[in-house]
User: Fold this.
Amino acid sequence: MNTAECPECGAEIQLGPKTVVGEILTCDECGSELEVTSLEPPTLELAPEEEEDWGE
Assistant:
């Protein structure tokens, strides 16, 4: 099983065998939402904030 480091707090994040690029994970240590940006090597970045469109 692959692991990657949380860019926010440095915690080790376990990546499952079915993890795919673009998947959003949550860090158990700091609660940050993280996006998988690469599997070789396993790389995580802070997920972009979703902006509300208020129905526009």
